[in-house]
Amino acid sequence: MTTSENSVDPAGLVRVLDADGAFAPTASAEPYLDLIDALTDSDLEQFYRDMVVIRAFDQQATNLQRQGQLALWPPSNGQEAAQVGSARAARPQDHIFPSYREHAVTRIRGVDPIDIIRVMRGLSHGGWDPTDPANGNTHIYTLVLGSQTLHATGLGMGLVFDGRCGAGDPERDEAVIVYYGDGASSQGDVHEAMVFAASYRTPEVFFLQNNQWAISVPVSTQSRSPLYKRGEGYGMPSIPVDGNDVLASYAVTRRALDEARSGEGPRAIEAMTYRMGAHTTSDDPTKYRTSDEEAGWARRDPIARLHAYLLGRGASEAFFADVQAEAAAVADDARVRTTQLGGLERDAMFAHVYSDPHPLIDEQRAWLAAYEASFEEGAS
Fold first, then answer.
1. Which of 1, 104, 196, 306 has its CA 20 to 30 A from that of 158?
2. CA distance 84 to 107
3. Spatial separation of the C-alpha atoms in residues 132 and 139, rounded to whole Å
4. Which of helix, strand or coil describes residue 107?
């Protein structure tokens, strides 16, 4: 069983740009056009720059894994518009809970991409400090799929209890956005999170990137009805959006976050997109999907779509050349810094296991130090 280009476009889909980059809003996009109209040429060019740069980084990271520099890499190729649009829609005070493929989101929020590399190289439990203001309220990647939705809802409940949302001030009220995929949407954690989010009216947006495949399981097997309807089942407004249209992704997420932080409760968004590459570098997608399917989705490439739209608006060749130069520089920087990371420091594996000192961790650290010292004694 496979997906097709048309079967994933439900009624009510919000789309602004068609696959050829023409401005062709669907009827469901009409309520969001004021947000689109407010975007400047600089905003649109930033969206494009974000997508191109992160794809170059992503491709470099994939190559690094193939060269033995990383243990694993989860590619984001094809999902850039969903991530860039939604991340640019968030306000600085908002809290971000990624899954493990949100490379564009984390970079936009200030996380150094090399910190993702450190996780996938096995050098870090988390990669970065989510409490560091430089990381833009961005929590660490979640490899236990679905659990991040519970974390996000818990924080959202705290915002409600502490009166940090719903005050009517969009510059200070806080919201939460949590990312997960179609595979994780079948996890019990996601549904528990939605129950509590709806019950406590958390200022939260559940952002589902439906990339059509939960590793080798097609979304048509996971659910007999569109995934966005699951949010409706818990009483929260739910919107399907073309996840390969960065303008639609931005506008829908912007409106949803503003409504959530103002006290109207949680929202759910299903971004229809496609994982152009493998699930991770340990996966072979040719075993379960066809080249015709991949070619069909390649015609909906999010970067090519925005490129065509910007050309139509008069963007210069100098702009596109500058973006390509930055993308190449970021990719080169990732390669150089990755090869300079070295191996795992002995004490790193014991850091951040518990928030406070723990006697068992102290005991294990001392044992390892003594064990390694025994080899040195034997050699002498």
1. 104
2. 10
3. 10
4. helix
Q: Which amino acid is at 340?
A: Q
Q: Which of 201, 204, 88 is nearest to 148 (CA)?
A: 204
A 10 A CB-CB count for 57 gives: 24
**Residue 132 and residue 4: Cα distance in Å, rounded?**
42
Alpha-carbon gap, residue 170 to 168, rounded angstroms: 6
Pairing of strands 95-97, 176-181: parallel
Residue with token string 């723990």 = 358
Q: Active-site residue among 230, 261, 279, 307?
A: 279
Nearest one of 275, 222, 297 to 100, comparing CA atoms: 275
Residue 265, pLDDT score: 97
Conformation bin of residue 177: beta by default, left when phi > 0, alpha when psi is -120 to 50: beta
Q: Three-state SS for 249?
A: helix
Lookup: tokens for 178:
């949590």
Q: What is the DSSP letter of 276?
A: -
Instruction: Count CB-CB contacts under 10 A for residue 128.
Output: 22
Distance CA 340, CA 27 (A): 52
pLDDT digits (tens, 9 = 90+) for 168-187: 999 999 999 999 999 999 99
The verdict on whether 103 is a catalytic residue reads no
pTM for the full model?
A: 0.92
Of 230, 255, 275, 335, catalytic: 275
SS3 (DSSP) at 272: strand
What was the pLDDT predicted at 4? 43
Which residues partner with 17 through β-bridges? 23
| Stretches in the chain below the pLDDT threshold 70 | 1-8, 378-380
Of 91, 125, 164, 288, which is the active-site residue?
A: 288
- CB atoms near residue 164 (< 10 Å): 17
pLDDT at 345: 82
**Known catalytic membership, residue 118:** no
pLDDT of 14-48, one tens digit each?
Answer: 999 999 999 999 999 999 999 999 999 999 999 99
275 is catalytic: yes
In this prediction, residue 351 carries a pLDDT of 82
* Nearest alpha carbon to residue 290 among 298, 282, 302: 298
The answer to whether residues 217 and 52 touch, using CB atoms and an 8 Å cutoff, is no
Q: Which of 74, 82, 14 is nearest to 274 (CA)?
A: 82
* Domains located in the chain, CATH noted: 27-339 (3.40.50.970), 350-379 (no CATH)
